[in-house]
Amino acid sequence: MAARLLRRMLGSRLLVLRSPPWGSGSGCARAARSGTDTGSLTKQAEATVATDWKKKLTPEQFYVTREKGTEPPFSGIYLDNTESGIYCCVCCNAPLFSSRKKYNSGTGWPSFSEAYGTCGSDESNTNIMRRPDNSLGSTRTEVLCKQCDAHLGHVFDDGPTPSGQRFCINSVSLNFKPGSG
What we know:
This protein has 181 residues and is an alpha+beta fold. It has helices at 2-10, 12-18, 27-34, 41-56, 59-67; strands at residues 85-89, 95-98, 102-103, 111-112, 128-133, 140-145, 151-156, 166-169, 174-178. It is globular and about 45 Å long. The chain is built from 5 helices and 9 strands; from the N terminus they run H-H-H-H-H-E-E-E-E-E-E-E-E-E.
């Protein structure tokens, strides 16, 4: 997954990392001959990606989307938004949630009953993915952007019918595009 993200983020710059500017021969073989460690190209590329995100995002957006943080409850700009439109990923602009599926859960974060593009219980055409999260000592389900791996929030099984889902999403991880949601 990291390689896919790096390819998407770095594009042609990744080719530079694969083909060192010092000519032919592998970096590992060159390091072995010289007795030095050039380090992991993947780690270097990940550091470049993090630097790029830091340039693009506000500190709060970076903390939530790239470091899996959470904004304080009842603080998000989209909590009480009732306009029609689409909520997109703040990092890559992928459409994530429709205002038609937004509701007031009383939890302090924007809540949605399903992701944009869901058909019944099929989320294969959405831009979200789910991942187990055991970070607080209990198992939750993290919600991430499928396109850029941004942390969005969590999903719980206590939402309204028919889905029964409550996507509890950080406002800071979203951009709102007004229109028909």
